[in-house]
């Protein structure tokens, strides 16, 4: 099974891939949300390996291992971090299967992913990156993302870029 370092390296690769995809494609929000989620998956799995030397194969096992609401959680995270991960997981599920996890919504229609959902995914991933970067001194750096819905946000790991290549004019 993968080590802490291997999970972190994969999270970094996914983060870099997100930047690359976003710089070249100004839509396909579903795929970009999914990249955000799988970046988070590897951060979470690195945490689990570090804290318990366990390796889980299902999302349900991972969720149980990090849940602050379960007494048997081996690698509990705070409620804020856990909920950020769960929101990101739900956004990715919506993106991949066109469904909603909201029991009040009908399953008879498809739930498409828009820029609004991508902005939510960016915000949730930023919460996770802030926590894991501080907890494990990972040294993630900020990337420019073309998403006008985060333009007014102050995020540690993401900044808005409206240039086609994803390079912020301020940092060029």
Explain how this protein is built:
It is globular and about 45 Å long. A two-stranded parallel sheet has the order 1-2. It has helices at 4-24, 29-52, 59-66, 79-97, 115-136, and strands spanning 143-145, 158-160. Helix 1 packs antiparallel against helix 2 (29-52) and helix 2 (29-52) runs parallel beside helix 5 (115-136). It is built from 5 helices and 2 strands. By secondary structure, the protein is mostly helical.
Helix content: 40-55%
What is the element string, with H for helices and E for strands? HHHHHEE
Number of separate strands:
2
- Rg for CA atoms: 16 Å
Report the major sheet.
Answer: 2 strands, parallel
The end-to-end span amounts to 40 Å
Tell me the fraction of residues in β-strands, as a range.
under 5%
Which ranges are low-confidence, i.e. pLDDT below 50, for 5 or more consecutive residues? Answer: 165-172
- How much is the average pLDDT? 88
Tally the helices: 5
What spatial form do the alpha-carbon principal axes imply? globular
Structural class: mainly alpha
- How do the strands of the widest beta sheet line up side by side? 1-2
């Amino acid at each position: 099974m993968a080590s802490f370092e291997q999970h972190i390296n994969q999270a970094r690769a996914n983060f870099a891939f997100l930047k690359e995809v976003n710089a070249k494609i100004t839509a396909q929000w579903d795929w970009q949300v999914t990249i955000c989620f799988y970046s988070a998956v590897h951060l979470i799995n690195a945490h689990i390996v570090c804290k318990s030397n366990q390796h889980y194969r299902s999302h349900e096992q991972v969720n149980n291992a990090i849940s602050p609401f379960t007494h048997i959680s081996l690698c509990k995270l705070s409620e804020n971090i856990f909920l950020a991960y769960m929101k990101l997981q739900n956004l990715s599920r919506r993106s991949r299967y066109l469904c909603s996890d909201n029991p009040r919504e009908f399953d008879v229609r498809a739930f498409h992913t828009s820029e609004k959902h991508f902005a939510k995914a960016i915000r949730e991933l930023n919460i996770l990156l802030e926590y894991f970067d501080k907890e494990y001194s990972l040294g993630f750096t900020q990337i420019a993302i073309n998403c006008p819905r985060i333009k007014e946000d102050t995020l540690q790991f993401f900044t808005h870029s409206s240039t086609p290549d994803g390079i912020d004019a301020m940092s060029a």
